[in-house]
Amino acid sequence: MSPLLSSPFSARQFAARTAINLDEIFWHSVDFLIPPRCVACGVTGHTFCASCAAAVQLCQAPLCAKCGLPLQLPASADCAFCSRHDLKVDRLLAAGFHRGPLQLAIHALKYRRNRALAAQLGSLMAAAWPADAPANALLVPVPLARQRRSARGFNQAEVLARQLGWRLGLHVDGAVLQRTRETRTQVGLGAAARGENVAGAFSASARRLRGRWPVLIDDVCTTGATLSECAIALRAAGAPLVWAFTLARAARS
Ligand SMILES: [Zn+2]
Ligand SMILES: [Zn+2]
Hints:
Rossmann fold
């Protein structure tokens, strides 16, 4: 029996599921009237075609147990990323690398408001969800800066978290984390500047967390600076462990 069928549904989960279904019905209707083009290769008929989906470079073992990047020397315990970055999450994982078709798909989701992609990208994340993840994980999307949220009309991290939560039967709470101040975009900043830009920029609600195991959800992880700041806030609110799971991981950071 699938986790969806075996887990009891709350009214909130039912509402989230209904919203996702209505969203998908809307986009399928749009696809019927205006046949889509693949956001990566341009072929007509699919928003993200099967050959582009198959070309996504997945993060495959052997991976660093902390940061989730492939280990260059499987025999060595040293990880080049972890030696350079003070990652504050206990475990970081990603579905694939931020390059090629996946990079183009994320770009389309974020900047061209192509929400039809959300279902396929959510599936990609669900397929990469770690088998040893806690059954009572609470999916916590990284909040978007208010200005970018209102300009875009949605938070792509929350869209992905809801797709993932629906597929895995997990709760999603987009109100656990709040931004305490506005930050500029991390795009184009170096590692040190990224850390300074988001330092102390988040707070978490202990009431909403209620001792559950939070798994941060975001579209892309570059240096892990934003995820680390979110983890600090979640730990201050009582989370004993914080994991993070992103759709994509920067190939070089
Ligand atoms: Zn394609
Ligand atoms: Zn590592």
